[in-house]
Amino acid sequence: MSAGRPPLRRLPTALWLLPSLGIALPLCVAVYAVLSDHGMPLPRKPQTPQTTGQPPAPVVRRATDFVPKPAAWSALLAGAPRDDAARGRLLVTQGNGAVPPACASCHGSNSPAPQPFPTLEGLPAEYIVKQLLDYRSGARQSSIMQPVANELADSDIAAVARYYAALPRLAGATLPTSGPAATLHWAGENARALPACADCHGASGGGGGRGRPPLTGHPKGMVAAQLNAFRAGTRANDDGAIMRALAHRLTDAEINALDGFYTGAAAPAAKGQNVQGTQDVP
After folding, report:
1. Which residues contact residue 265 at a Cβ distance below 8 angstroms, ignoring those fewer than 6 apart?
2. Stated pTM of the model
3. What mean pLDDT comes out for the span 86-93?
């Protein structure tokens, strides 16, 4: 090195690496994109559980989660013995000598009860079981029936329901074809979103299946009592609150007229007074 010439300065190593990084980074991005497109697993940073500000972990679902669960009445009937007709007859006609009295003392065409208890002969067993379970849960309220339902064992409920279901249903009165109640039964009223009663309870009012009971064949006052119970919310065991909504759309006079329509008796003339509106009717 000649005298007086300044020494050569070496560039920092980082400056030599800059061009290399400019080539390597795009290559890394391209490789990452290719791996992602082909569904290959990519390294992820382990997640630490967070207590706040984070959504909950996803719930793992299985195929069985989407299988409909049987209704309580269905499970009870499926698990109860089927050859218990003698037990059902004993409970209905004589009781068991304990708290639940004989069912026939209140229910039936020859019942001496002063209140309009429903006639149970020929009702679907599924419907009877559901009502007794609803009394247990409080979805259907009655100071008479709730203690009875709580005292009955599941097997007794099934036996009583099957016994009544095997009995013939008494024929109801022939339904009129004219008048305000007949219009509600046969056609309903679109302006108030009232479907025809016959759509669910049958053209003759004799029932529309295991969950839609007959409206005929009951003592006078029974239909009105149930409509008023739906109105008041003391009976809240209708699917989708359908009957509660319909009962609220009916006037007092219409409720009385429907009661007379289904029981074959003239509706009370007193406007604004419900038949059996305050009685505790099972």
Report:
1. 220, 259
2. 0.71
3. 93
